[in-house]
Design goal:
Blueprint lengths: L1 E3 L2 E11 L4 E9 L7 E3 L3 E7 L4 E3 H5 L3 E5 L5 E8 L11 E2 L6 E4 L2 E4 L4 E9 L10 E10 L7 E13 L16 E4 L2 E7 L4 E3 H5 L3 E5 L5 E8 L12 E3 L4 E6 L2 E4 L4 E10 L9 E11 L3 E13 L1
Parallel strand pairs: 1-14, 5-14, 9-13, 16-25, 20-24
Antiparallel strand pairs: 2-3, 2-25, 3-5, 4-7, 6-12, 7-12, 8-11, 8-13, 10-12, 13-14, 15-18, 17-23, 18-23, 19-22, 19-24, 21-23, 24-25
């Protein structure tokens, strides 16, 4: 079976829990191919200070299930498999988990109708052994379809879970939880046939406004700004340069006050430098929406892919 991964859309969340955990979440979606495809809500999660002798569900811990969607026109069978990554696949200095028994997905197989989404729990179990104190480990969850009769391709995406293990045991009754239900739409913007030295209105380019939506039950203060790739947790596809090295972004308002369930639109302009070398080049820019004034702080990334004539 040939497994082909088509990665395109991404969200990126940065979450801090002050007491015990630091969580970095990169939510990734897969572009639909002609024969079908999958989308998957989690691309990368980084969790710090988990405890030995405990089992963690990311859904229970951080309201973070793995949402798998069939983006194609036909029903598919999906498997979600935890994998021990190769050392070449690990990130941020992590080591592969010692054994597959450390992770599981529930459910690990299911059917999806066209456009249907199902939630999967990603579960990590850490043995009660002090030899793991201070370790930084990674497990991959591979969500993929099974090729049916007459088909040659299956579609899939790998979600990385990176976690560190604390150097002390769990304190009784201490298990922080969070709700990261906060969004920025569109999550991905593709700007084509651009010209240097021109000021573009985002609304005209996108044919729709940039929307910040507070889906939590709390009042939120959200700050919007451009973020250089080197400052973010995002990585550019091969052949893409940082857009904000060659363009300036202006957004209004830059700070929003959102009631629970409220959404507001952002307007803005992008000015491309006149002297930049843009011909036949591709760029990626990150727009960061950051929640402030909360014990749990969240950053969400919206990506702008810019393609010049």
């Amino acid at each position: 079976m040939c497994k082909t991964v088509f990665v395109s859309k991404t969200y990126d969340y940065l979450v801090y829990i002050r007491t015990t955990f630091f969580i970095l979440i990169t939510l990734g979606l897969v572009i639909t191919a002609q024969a079908g495809g999958l989308s998957c809500s989690v691309g990368e999660v980084v969790i710090e200070n988990l405890k030995i002798g405990n089992t963690y569900s990311l859904k229970a811990l951080a309201n973070l299930p793995l949402l798998v969607t069939n983006t194609g026109p036909r029903p598919v069978t999906v498997l979600v498999e935890p994998l021990v990554p190769a050392t070449t696949e690990t990130r941020q200095g992590a080591e592969p988990i010692p054994a597959l028994s450390w992770a599981k997905a529930l459910p690990d197989s299911f059917e999806l109708a066209p456009r249907e989404t199902k939630a999967v729990e990603m579960i990590i179990s850490i043995p009660d052994e002090e030899a793991y104190f201070g370790k930084k480990l990674q497990v991959n969850f591979w969500s993929h379809t099974l090729a049916k009769d007459g088909e040659f391709l299956a579609y899939g995406i790998s979600s990385r879970v990176i976690f560190t293990i604390d150097t002390v045991r769990q304190e009784p009754n201490l298990l922080p939880r969070g709700d990261f239900s906060f969004s920025i739409l569109p999550a991905e913007m593709r700007l084509k046939n651009l010209s240097p030295g021109v000021v573009y209105d985002l609304r005209d380019l996108l044919q729709e406004p940039l929307i910040i939506h507070n889906t939590s039950g709390k009042k939120l203060v959200v700050e919007i700004r451009a973020l250089r790739l080197e400052e973010s947790s995002a990585s550019a596809p091969e052949g893409y340069a940082d857009l904000w090295g060659s363009a300036n972004l202006s957004l209004s308002p830059s700070i929003l006050y959102l009631e629970p369930g409220e959404e507001k639109s952002i307007s803005g302009t992008i000015r491309f430098n006149k002297r930049g070398k843009f011909s036949n080049k591709n760029f990626l820019g990150i727009i960061c929406a950051a929640v402030t004034e909360q014990d749990i702080k969240t950053q969400i990334y919206s990506r702008i892919y810019a393609h010049f004539k």
